[in-house]
UniProtKB/TrEMBL annotation:
Domain (HTH lacI-type) ranges: 7-61
One family name in Pfam for this protein: LacI
Coiled-coil stretches noted in the UniProt entry, renumbered to this chain: none
Gene3D superfamilies in alphabetical order: 3.40.50.2300, lambda repressor-like DNA-binding domains
InterPro entries: HTH_LacI, LacI/GalR-like_sensor, Lambda_DNA-bd_dom_sf, Peripla_BP_I
Naturally occurring in which organism (per UniProt): Rhodococcus jostii (strain RHA1)
One Gene Ontology MF term: transcription cis-regulatory region binding
Protein name per UniProt: Transcriptional regulator, LacI family protein
SUPFAM superfamilies cross-referenced by the UniProt entry: lambda repressor-like DNA-binding domains, Periplasmic binding protein-like I
Keyword terms: DNA-binding, Transcription, Transcription regulation
Top-rank taxon, per record: Bacteria
């Protein structure tokens, strides 16, 4: 038997093969647990000499059956797919989701200063923004499980893609089919901030061109989104030497770029090739060549990591990097002069 003084709810969860949240509800007499499961959990708790103290567990941040998901935006496809993956895994483990949307830097500062989720959740999933040193310290003070999606996370478990590699895959495809004048439309957030993934994609763009001995000074920086893509392509078309192919930081940006080309009477791919990243649903409709990233799978992997950690088990990998794949469609071809 585990020594009495070291027994906790995770031990009961491991003994019975259920989630910590289910153990918490069963031992508190809450609804949502079958009688057979409740009896099995109570039997395991008795064998381990574990007695739950609801008041103490609430005060100490004990099992609540809730996980906070912190996102910078909620109305974009990427975040909705991430959330769907997270929610699917957490629901299967009887865990509820509390969503916090921090669109502005002032909201983010206030959130980490006040930590409204203190004592309300068992875990935090931070989606697609890198945590600063002070922010990590504040989460560590809460003594809860933390998993990060879409960024390097230091000591916290993380799930992401290799954004630099994804950019290399995109630009490498353009180089292989003969392009030597390749432009890039990169993005900034509404407050003018560059995100970790964007910075890595810029690095991949420059690295791919450097490896091929090509110039890399053809870049337009615009706000994220379709309108940003439209403006970015306008800027590239205004250059003295117009590129024959353009790498866009996302498929939505690429769709905007395609709109500008259509208005300018430039056919794709005969007059210019365009490639994006994501494999957004509109990519197939637009016949857009892209680099697919497993968006929903990132959310699901983060959800599974939280469940493992809350059950007292260490995930097989603390830094999960999911693969990306080139998807060739009709928006890329050999340059006009070839």
């Amino acid at each position: 038997m585990i020594p009495k003084q070291s027994v906790n709810m995770a031990d009961v969860a491991r003994r019975t093969g259920v989630s910590i949240a289910t153990v918490s509800r069963a031992l508190r007499g809450e609804r949502g647990v079958s009688e057979a499961t409740r009896l099995r959990i109570q039997r395991a708790a008795d064998e381990l000499a574990y007695v739950i103290s609801p008041e103490a567990s609430k005060l100490s941040g004990g099992a609540t059956g809730r996980v906070a998901v912190v996102v910078p935006w909620i109305d974009a496809w990427f975040y909705s797919r991430i959330l769907a993956g997270i929610e699917h895994e957490l629901r299967a483990a009887d865990l509820d989701v509390l969503l916090y949307c921090l669109e502005e830097s002032s909201q983010r500062e206030s959130f980490f200063e006040r930590l409204p989720l203190r004592r309300k959740v068992d875990a935090v999933i931070a989606v697609a923004f890198p945590l600063t040193g002070p922010e990590r310290a504040r989460l560590e003070e809460m003594d809860v499980t933390v998993v990060v999606i879409g960024a390097h996370a230091g000591e916290f478990p993380s799930v992401r893609i290799d954004d630099e590699l994804a950019a290399r895959q995109a630009v490498g495809h353009l180089i292989r089919i003969g392009h030597t004048r390749i432009g890039m439309i990169r993005t900034v957030d509404p407050e003018g901030q560059y995100w970790e993934g964007d910075i890595a994609r810029v690095a991949g763009f420059h690295a791919a061109l450097a490896d091929a001995g090509l110039d890399d000074d053809c870049t337009a920086t615009v706000p994220w989104g379709i309108e940003g893509g439209e403006r970015g392509m306008e800027l590239l078309l205004s250059r003295a030497e117009v590129p024959t192919a353009v790498f866009c930081h996302s498929d939505e940006v690429a769709v905007g770029a395609l709109r500008t080309l259509r208005r300018a009477g430039i056919s794709v791919p005969a007059g210019m090739s365009v490639i994006g990243i994501d494999d957004h649903p509109t990519a197939e409709l637009a016949d857009l060549t892209t680099v697919r990233q497993p968006v929903g799978e990132q959310g699901a992997a983060a959800g599974r990591a939280v469940v493992e950690l809350l059950s007292g088990r260490e995930p097989a990998e603390r830094a999960v990097v999911l693969p990306t794949h080139l998807v060739v469609r009709g928006s890329t071809a050999r340059p006009p002069e070839l």
